[in-house]
Design a protein that fits this description.
It is a single chain. This protein has about 230 residues and is mainly α. About 80% of the residues lie in helices and about 0% in strands. It has 9 helices and 2 strands, in the order H-H-H-E-E-H-H-H-H-H-H. A two-stranded antiparallel ribbon has the order 1-2. It is flat and about 75 Å long. It is found in: Cell membrane. This is Amino acid ABC transporter permease. It is a multi-pass membrane protein. Belongs to the binding-protein-dependent transport system permease family.
Length: about 230
């Protein structure tokens, strides 16, 4: 079978896998990871000395340390294959299907990295911004929402966008826990047609197109969020 025939037969299934698995897994995982990242970042920058907050800080540090210090593939295998071995009276305590395990792992991994990005972005906002807002009688929650977060978002946008683009590519690891995303489908066609070069080149091209589009969106967002800075420069 010619390379062109392999492409025409494989492409529809690869596109279906992209729309059905790769993109949804990426979007859901990133949104959940971002929510977790904001919460972890706020805990870690909190000045509170209360025992509960100190405990949460320690737990947050441990979570970030674990998920930034271990390979994503290992995390996937631990959550999908390893957790069912935690048993009580012979019955598994936690048993997740592949879809749930994949999203959970990607969200936890994204949250760990993004929390450091968001924490650094918040801390980079000058203290004078806090002081000016407090002088106006604004509460801390209002200062964070209206003064600090908008500025931190502009700073955090490039690294967060890079994390999102990386996550698109990392979803290929989900094939290791039986999720039939794009890379899993390309493996099936490589075995079916005995031509891994064409099959893997095609899926690489699709990932490249996705990341290229997202890179363009990232550039537009960066320009959009920095438009006032450019005007006053």
């Amino acid at each position: 079978m010619s390379a062109w025939q392999i492409v025409t037969k494989s492409l529809p299934d690869l596109l279906v896998a992209m729309l059905k698995y790769t993109i949804p897994i990426t979007l859901i995982s990133f949104v959940l990871g971002l929510i977790l990242a904001v919460l972890v970042a706020l805990v870690r920058i909190s000045p509170s000395r209360k025992p509960l907050m100190q405990g949460l800080k320690g737990l947050s540090w441990f979570y970030v340390w674990i998920f930034r210090g271990t390979p994503l593939l290992v995390q996937l295998f631990l959550i999908f294959f390893g957790l069912p071995y935690l048993k009580v009276n012979g019955a598994p305590i936690i048993e997740l299907n592949a879809w749930t395990a994949g999203i959970l792992t990607f969200a936890l991994n994204t949250g760990a990295y993004a929390s450091e990005t968001i924490r650094a972005a918040i801390l980079s906002v000058p203290e004078t911004q806090w002081e000016a807002a407090r002088a106006l009688g604004m509460k801390k929650s209002l200062i964070l929402r209206l003064v600090v977060f908008p500025q931190a978002l502009r700073i955090a946008l490039p690294p967060l966008s890079n994390s999102f683009i990386s996550l698109i590519k990392d979803t290929s690891l989900a094939s290791g826990i039986t999720i039939i995303e794009m890379f899993q489908v390309s493996q099936q066609f490589a075995a079916l047609y005995y031509n891994p070069l064409v099959s893997y080149s095609l899926v690489a091209f699709l990932y490249l197109m996705l990341t290229t589009v997202l890179t363009g969106v990232q550039a537009w967002l960066e320009k959009r969020t920095s438009r006032y800075l450019i005007q006053t420069a």
